[in-house]
Amino acid sequence: MERQIINKKKRVFSVEPNKIPPSEVFTRKYTRLLVPALKKLNMNKNSSQANQLTVKHEVDMALALSAQEFAWSRFLLQKLSSSNNPTTTTSSSSNGIRIQKRSGKEGGDEDGEIEEKMRELQKLLPGGEEMNVEEMLGEIGNYIKCLELQTIALKSIVEDTT
Amino acid sequence: MLESLVSLESMSLSSMDVSVLERLKWLQQQQQQVLSTTNASPELLQFHGTNNDELLQNTFSHFQMLGSGFGPNYSMGFGPSHEAMDGCISRTNSCQMDQADTVGVMLKNSEENITISLKNKRKSEVKTREEEKTEKKIKVEAETELNMKVKSNLSNTEASSETSKQKSKAASENQKLDYIHVRARRGQATDRHSLAERARREKISKKMKYLQDLVPGCNKVTGRAGMLDEIINYVQSLQRQVEFLSMKLAVLNPELELAMEDLSVKQFQAYFTNLPVVVASKPSLMVDAPLFPLDQQGSLDLSVINPNQATTIEAPSASWETQSQSLYNTSSLGFQY
Q1: Do residues B184 and B100 make contact, with C-beta atoms less than 8 angstroms apart?
Q2: What is this model's ipTM?
Q3: Which keywords does the record carry (chain A) (predicted)?
Q4: pLDDT for the residue numbered B17
């Protein structure tokens, strides 16, 4: 009986793929990629640092692979594949930069300020520096969306295991 | 220029026959001749007007001969854009417009027509091409409206003669100012660079508005700098969250095998809660479906429940049934690495 049900599940096909909202598509892809990958990971009890890095790598990889219609995912994939040590494209570095900029640009040129912020935003987005401003603004929109969905997916995965 | 026009036409007007292309070429020539013999003075504009009237008349008659191909467009073109055009032009009438405004009006309407009927969206070298497109549109599909307007306006009032003058002015402006494809507002500079700048700025502000909707809390902040700040903060916080969660996952990973089956259920619960407020979604996640004893082997098959309604899921077996009936492709999403 269980086996039957499992088999049934495996034979499902999508009849109207276009009508699935993209957020669902993304999240589904994401979890389907990430969870098995995490399972396959050879978790080394000793070095938690390496564990974290590989997990982060898998997380980023899953993100990039689930969102392949966007430009930034290409850049993210490049970054992931090129570097053996896939450090965060994300928080630690940009934190510092933000603080510096904050203090340094008080009474300055307003347009210059906006430019600075745009550049910062570009740094946050994978591949943002290679895009021009308009393109980047558009890509940031869907990057944000995907990040949100990713956090939801990760939260649910984490909760499932606790 | 004619060659480029022809090539553009052949690409974009696949449905039209050759006769139309020839006519357009002829029109182009006509208008160029007209232009070369005049400059923009009011008296000569009348000359423009009549000339264009004739041109439009001719094309109108030719157009009628075209027949069924343009049937729907033909009738469709009249109604709404007729009023729109009238509205625009009367507005511009009252405002003592300068040249660029008429250009803007014409182009705006013709652009709408373009987006409705033609589907070319190439942005490179767009300026000349869009200009040519607008000219074509004015001639081929909007021409009937123009003609109607010209005729009706001429027959109606004195002000309408002004309208036709302005329209013809605009038509000639289309010829001259080949690269304008943005609506120029009243009193603003109309040279090429500032118009391009304005177009760019408008695009950017459109995108900023979209981002404003996306990022929570952006409405309270005014000005680009503040909004950008908010966006940056938001992206950073999202990224930090992801990192934190992945760290947690790294710690928890050995226990991943257990209780993964209801993942899909919980995901969709999360969808229906407020997305950015991820914390608030936690309680709803907790209240969820019971553990499914089914998939305790390693193979995970997260086929998806129909997301249309699921505040609670009754029985595990029932939900798996619905999953199997739900229409999502599982096989295509391989584990590609």
Answers
A1: yes
A2: 0.73
A3: Nucleus, Transcription, Transcription regulation
A4: 55
Host domain of residue B196 = 190-267
Residues of B in contact with A17 (CB under 8 A): 329
**Tokens 């009927």 found at:** B117
CB contact under 8 A, A16 and B323: no
pLDDT in tens, B192-249: 889 999 998 898 888 888 888 888 888 777 777 888 888 888 999 999 998 888 888 7
Q: State both tokens at A36.
A: 């098995």
Contact A12 B323 (CB under 8 A): yes
User: From A99, which residue of chain B is nearest by alpha-carbon distance?
Assistant: B233
The answer as to whether B245 is a domain residue is: yes
Beta carbons of B251 and A161 less than 8 Å apart: no
Nearest to B152, CA basis, from B61, B72, B60, B86? B86
- Which residue type is seen at A44? N
Per domain, the residue ranges of chain A are 21-83+126-161
| pTM metric for this prediction | 0.45
- Give B-chain residues touching A38 at CB under 8 angstroms: 249, 253, 256
For the segment B276-318, what is each residue's pLDDT rounded down to a tens digit? 444 333 333 333 333 334 333 333 334 333 334 333 333 444 4
Alpha carbons B64 and B49: distance in angstroms, whole number: 22
Closest CA to B330 of B302, B311, B293, B291: B302
- Distance, in angstroms, between A100 CA and closest chain B CA? 14
Is there a domain that residue B205 lies in? yes
Domains: count for chain B: 1
